[in-house]
Amino acid sequence: MSAGDSVLKRLFKRRKFLQATALMAMVVAGGWLAFPKTANADADPQADIIELQGTTTPGAGSIDPRVANVAQLKKPPLSAYNTYKLLNRATFPVKKGVPSSYTLKNGRILQLTFEDMSKDNRYRVLTTISEPNGKDFLSRLEVLHGANELLAVAGQWLDPKHHDKGALVLGITIHP
Known about the structure:
Layout: H1 3-13, H2 15-21, E1 23-28, E2 46-55, E3 83-93, E4 100-103, E5 109-117, E6 123-130, E7 136-145, E8 149-157, E9 167-175
Antiparallel strand pairs: 1-8, 2-3, 2-9, 4-5, 5-6, 6-7, 8-9
C-alpha cells in the first residue's frame, strides 16, 4: 500500500469527507459522448450512466478501453486512481418531476429527477443516492447540468466492507 492509499483510506473514513467529495468533478465530456442535439425544454432527456471501479495499482495502471477517452479520469481528483474498469453502462429516460431509479453495483440506489430547464437551457436535475434500506447516502444534490456534460460522482466504496476492491465512480451524462 502506498502512502497515497493510506491517506485516501483515512479521508474516506470521515463521513463529512464523503459528503463533501460525493460531487468530485463536473466537467464537459469533451468527445466521449458527442450528441449533436441541444437541450429542449419540452422534451424529456435521457440519462447515460457509467459505473467504474477505480483502484490504485503498482505501476502505470490502466483504463478500460471502453472509457479510455474520458479525459477526466486522468485529472485530479479522479487521477487518485490509476486503474479504471467499466462495470456497467445504462441509458434510461428522465421524466420531468418523476424520479428515475437505478441500482448501483454496490447495492445503493441512484435516483435522478429532471426538475426543469434553466433560462440558459441547462437541466436542473435532483440527484440522490440511498442505501437499500432507504437511508440517504447522498441526499438532494441539485445540479444544473448542461446537455452532454459529464458529471462525475465519487466518494463511495464499491464494497463498503472491503475497501481493497476500490471506489465506485459514476459518470452521469444528460442529453436530449
